[in-house]
Write a structure and sequence with these properties.
single chain, alpha+beta, three-stranded mixed β-sheet
């Protein structure tokens, strides 16, 4: 419909109705990766010892909690996997497109770390909470357990 194409031309700006991803993966991963980046920025030296990480717990809203594949088989599946996205971001210290390539999906160190990521729905958020949240405020919480020590308790 050509009229729809020019409807409100000069009044409505489509770019203002969109959002820009800061992580190279599904937007439902973004809150978790925002948390990972905060932890990396505040505790970079601890993340150099990724073999010491025993468990990573991600608690988020329903849609994000569904993205729990620990062993994605291809790049697209990796972009829709919180465990992989978290592990790759920790491993590479970023969530750029270079962290989501087929060689990264096949990287055994990243997959071993992804297997330590537990993704759970945080019931207090509930589905109704998602409708009240702006994209940039999608919630997630991450607790990294280093052999029983919560070295991120100050966050």
């Amino acid at each position: 419909n050509p009229e729809k194409m020019i409807e409100k031309l000069g009044e409505r700006w489509e770019i203002a109705r969109n959002y820009f991803k800061i992580h190279a993966c599904c937007r439902y991963n973004h809150a978790s990766l925002d948390c990972v980046e905060t932890l990396l920025n505040q505790n970079a030296q601890e993340f150099d010892l990724i073999d010491k990480i025993e468990k990573i717990e991600v608690k988020s809203y329903f849609w994000a909690a569904e993205l729990d594949d620990k062993e994605p088989k291809n790049v697209l599946a990796g972009k829709f996997s919180i465990p992989f996205a978290v592990a790759s971001t920790i491993y590479h210290k970023n969530s750029k497109t270079s962290s989501f390539t087929i060689d990264k999906v096949k990287n055994s160190k990243i997959i071993d770390l992804a297997k330590k990521v537990e993704v759970e729905e945080y019931p207090e958020l509930g589905m109704e909470a998602v409708w009240r949240i702006e994209v940039e405020n999608f919630p997630a919480f991450i607790v990294v357990d280093d052999k029983g020590n919560d070295f991120f308790s100050s966050i």
